[in-house]
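User: I'm new to structure prediction. If I give you an amino acid sequence, what do you actually give back? Let's try with this one:
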Amino acid sequence: MRHLNGSLRMKEKLWTKDFWAITVVSFIIFFVFYVLLTLLPIYIADRLHASADKAGLLVTCFLAAAIVIRPFAGQWVGKYSNKKILVLSSLAFLVITALYPVCHSIESLLFIRVLHGITFGVITTVKGTISARLIPASRRGEGISFFSLAMGLAMVVGPWIGLNMARWNAFTAAFWLCTAVAVLGIVLSLIVTVPPVIRHADGSRPSLGVAAMFDRAALPFALVTFFMTFSYAGVSAFLALYARELDLMAAASNFLLCYAIFLMICRTFTGNVL
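Assistant: Good question. You get back a string of structure tokens that encode the predicted 3D arrangement of the chain. For your 274 residues, that looks like this:
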């Protein structure tokens, strides 16, 4: 009987329609994020004639807004319909992405980056929660690895496209590309079937409040993630400006290609190990 139950668990389907949809949504959100992260420094330097420190300010405003909203978003996904949060945040993400082509000053761009950071913080929180509920318990490690691979691929494909479109001075085309991709995110958000909010054994929902926003057990993992993403964000944000200064834009593209290849290789094996 144990062997039979184990066999059934091993056959639980991972790649359902809903898991496919939420994984592609994850790729889309991070794709737009990394295209803009790489493209905007050159855009503001060439079109808005701003200094390099303004590029750092754009990144800071975006990420600061995303970080501030995250604890509140975590409570919202435990209280309200995750489907509604996913659709509304995806819609807001789309609308704000479509505003980049009409931003012609640093001030307006900073304002848009703050709004974009807020929507990014909400949508990344809810999509992660939904994916965790869609992955079968017997394939948890494998499922999380493949879901994270979508973000990893976006970390490479996004900067690569942003870098090359910056080389061609195709800034407006890049903004509209991001908008078109965000439209696909809306479509997928609408078709995904979201599991209901998990309740405790007594029927109550997860606790809310300031104390519920933090968990000491998660701190070590959060710190590891912080230092890894801190390093990569710095590389992505200033790679285009640095490569252009050295006249090595083509080499920068190859750097991202190599990163993508080894990322995919590592992700494929680690999913089965976990």
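You can read the tokens as a compact description of the fold. Here is one thing that stands out. The chain has one domain: 16-193+206-273.
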